[in-house]
């Protein structure tokens, strides 16, 4: 009687792949994992997001995630924050045309465009309170704020800012951040144009209040108003406030 032959295992090509998995170039896969992580970290507290969650959402395996991020979730979290921070910082470029407040309004328009396009990354970047938050992750957020401070002072024509002018700009940056997060939380109810102009008015009003106590800020504000031109409505209103 002829012996039955052992079953032949299917070739690797014939084996079904895990549902949802597909091969991607190295850089594309890394960017995909970061994008998925940003979405998850923004929608839930980062400490509640596991690598298995990231792998499942990306259509990948846990070992594959570790292949790209050997440091595990902490390394992936930091990479996701750094990606969001780099793109947000790139939006701080001030256009050459226009009056100072028009230029500031243009920067805010670009800023809110980032917030609208990447709301998950923006939220993940700025919302803290997670057990995965470390000195490195805090430093990433601080780098964004320092870049915003530096470029705003450069826009104002200031090389060396005193403590009150620095406090003014930092406080206004915090107002912009808080406004952006509230805008997302409230379902983007207000038009971006209204928010943008309101924040420009906020800056000018805060500058006017600071100018009453700080000669450097008074000089900066005076120079801004001169560049706005005599017929600019915003400048006219501020002059009325300053002259009482």
Structure write-up:
The termini are far apart. The protein folds into two domains: 57 residues, Tetracycline Repressor, domain 2, CATH 1.10.357; 160 residues, Tetracycline Repressor, domain 2 (Orthogonal Bundle), CATH 1.10.357. The protein has eleven helices and no strands. Helix 1 packs across helix 4 and helix 5 packs across helix 6. The longest helix is centred in the last third of the chain and has 23 residues. It has 244 residues and is mainly α.
Q: What's the number of domains?
A: 2
Low-pLDDT stretches: 1-20
Q: Which value, in Å, is the CA radius of gyration?
A: 25 Å
Which structural class is indicated by helix and strand composition?
mainly alpha
CATH fold type of the largest domain: Tetracycline Repressor, domain 2
**Termini separation:** 113 Å
The count of DSSP E runs of length 2 or more, i.e. the number of strands, is 0
Oligomeric form: single chain
Helical content stands at: 55-70%
Total of DSSP H or I helical runs spanning 4+ residues: 11
What is the overall pLDDT average? 83
What is the CATH-assigned architecture of the largest domain? Answer: Orthogonal Bundle
H/E order of the elements?
HHHHHHHHHHH
> Hey, roughly how much beta strand do the residues contain?
under 5%
Report on the biggest sheet. none
The CATH superfamily of the largest domain appears as Tetracycline Repressor, domain 2
What does the overall shape look like? elongated
